[in-house]
Amino acid sequence: MERVAHDIARTKHFALKGLRGALIWSTWYKIADVLSANMCSEMAENGVTWAASPEFEGVVRTISCIGMEQFIACPIIFALWEIPVPKLLGGAEPRKIPVEVRNRLGPLLLDNAKLWTFFNMLIYSVPLEFRVFASNLCDIVWQVVLSKSLASDKDGDGAVKEAA
After folding, report:
1. How many Cβ atoms are within 10 Å of 157's Cβ, its own excluded?
2. CA 21 – CA 103 distance, rounded (Å)
3. What average pLDDT does this structure show over 132-143?
4. Tens of pLDDT along 81-129?
5. I need a labelling partner for 47 at 20 to 30 A (CA). Which of 29, 78, 88, 93 fits?
6. What's the whole-model pTM score?
7. Which is more confidently placed, 30 or 156?
8. What are the CA-CA distances from residue 160 to residues 30, 32, 164 (Å)?
9. Span of 4-8, 25-29, 44-48, 54-58 with lowest mean pLDDT
10. What pLDDT, on the 0 to 100 scale, is given for residue 95?
């Protein structure tokens, strides 16, 4: 088996991408927590009192957070961060990024929904201060899915395979 030299610069770039991604998701979890709490309060004020009851509030908040993540956060974060940044770090030309986003976003959102819906039931059930940690544990599996998706290199430019 041929030994490949380790690329320190590439490792540094992707480690920084991961740290910045953790900041993005940490911010999202705080936003989702506030929005879901407001949603429960609004529902209770409008006569749906069970939504704010101790028995159901956690369930309502978890379901609303998952829905908001799937339909608001993920399309934005994937289109502006998860797809373009690895491509650029791998040497893709910036002018090709919009095409990559267009080609990858739909399938990636579908894969995300299949995998992360279950994970998010766990993540949104833990206290806010532990969500990034819980998410990072689940993220190990997601990164395998993401790297396979981004490494498919359908357009043959070579940069995609290097980025994965």
Report:
1. 17
2. 22
3. 86
4. 999 998 898 889 999 999 999 999 999 999 889 988 999 999 999 999 9
5. 29
6. 0.78
7. 30
8. 33, 32, 7
9. 4-8
10. 96
- Give CA separation, 77 vs 28, 43, 51, 86, in Å: 10, 28, 29, 13
Whole-number Å distance between alpha carbons of 112 and 134: 16
- Is residue 83 within 8 A of residue 58, CB to CB? The reply is no
Q: In the structure encoding, which two tokens stand for residue 133, read together?
A: 């940690």
Return the structure tokens found at 73: 């956060």
The two structure tokens encoding residue 154: 């359908």
Length of the chain in residues, anyone? 164
Pair 97, 87: CB distance under 8 Å: yes
29 close to 132: Cβ distance less than 8 angstroms:
yes
Structure tokens given for 101 = 């986003």
